[in-house]
Predict the structure.
Amino acid sequence: MISDISNTLAWLENNLPILKNINRGIERETLRVKPNGDIAVSKHPIDLGSALQNEWITTDFAESLLEFITPVDNRIEYMLYFLRDIHRYVYRILNKEFLWPLSMPCRIEDINKIKLADYGKSNIGLMKTLYRKGLKTRYGAMMQTISGIHYNFSLPVTFWKEWADLQNLENCKETISAGYLILIRNYYRFGWIIPYLFGASPAICSSFLQKNNNIKLIFEINNKNTLWLPYATSLRLSDLGYNNKVSNILKITFNSLEEYVNKLRIALKTPWEQFVEIGIKDKYGNRIQLNTNILQIENEFYSPIRPKCVNRFGKSYSDTLLHNGIEYIEVRSLDINPFSAIGINKTQVYFLDLFLIWCILSDISDMSTEELHYSNENWKIVTLEGRKPNLKINVGFNKKYFLADIGKKIFHDLRRVAEILDKNEQNKIYQKICDELFLYFDNPELTYSARILNAIKQNGVIETGISLSKQYRDILCTEPLNVLQEKDLKIKAKKSILEQKKIEKNDFINFETYLNNLSY
């Protein structure tokens, strides 16, 4: 069920310094909205710089879907202050618009108001926009406006050196990759604990469905154009939300880096019947997707967690991953925290430290496709009815256990990891957070989803979002910047615009030739 980690915990306790200097980074998505809760139709503000080249402030799918990115750092407070400074600065730039504080989108009555992100006239910029047109064509624009938090995490080299010694393995990139794959497999097995604790999208605005007759969920509804499932934790992570159904055929088990890369490459070269029927171009001869394959590019593979590396040489993601090995992991299953002005709080970061470290120390066995199936089913169960009394999930091979019992067993181990980490911190912050979150299993009303649903049922999803947006704007606009200066952000914006112009000036081939030369 859950492996005994007593030996690895003892090893960890005897090697405390190896857990210093954990690196982290945050990517936060948020929609720009009008004061009435409608999606903003204005272009990306020029004072925020080039969405193509500004590494701190960019856009995701749509012009109105902002993405804030912190640099990699080993200081939790600095990272959160940096993210907060970005929010403070952006609110000083925005005129009468707000930042939407929920994962599920604001009111969008007309999907034509969702404007694709514009990255300029360079070939790379046009390609990025075309990729998004392909997402719109394949899955619909509404799904792409869903927002989340992506959390990047890597352990220090000193940890992996001692880890290799413990496993009697060579200290090399292959060993590090194998360690991160253990983490990923266990995240698939037990990562449903993230939406249980922190899922915050149990409800949607009625406009999200857009008369979709394929929805089989039975929602409760009020007279405020709000629909919800009574025990849902994260509709964002459910089949209703940010989900690439065709990628499920890949059945990636993360048993080896070669398997992961090879299956991605197959998806990049294999036409998918539904996308072939759509075609490459519309009836006017305009491109509507990059290609007709299962995946247009590697990033189209949606998953709750992904292996990552820094692309230093301009190669494809898969080529770089094989060459460099896994350098960090990207957690993609965090909803926007509506109780934080910046979408995430310190409690979540500290918990992720505990849980991700536990995932490395836990079961090292490979994952079969059967176990992958049961793990995916657990995620579906928890996202749609995670707070249901006496809910059972699968652990192992179709063995049913109460979710609360499994959660408490995991926390028993997490508490022991917390004690070790607190010795490094010389305080008890990890233990305090562990004890606080443990209570969520006996009282699901403490979870983020239950708390936000109570407000939404009373006031409506749009009214709740507007109220929180205004509250956070008022707070952030009055706060001084903490670790950045306004001139830093202005310089970054101006420099990014110049860099975009330079890229556009240096394009010497036409767009069709550029696309034909791409190695996806």
Q: What stands out?
A: The CA atoms of residues 11 and 166 lie 8 Å apart. The mean pLDDT is 93. The two ends are 40 Å apart (CA to CA).
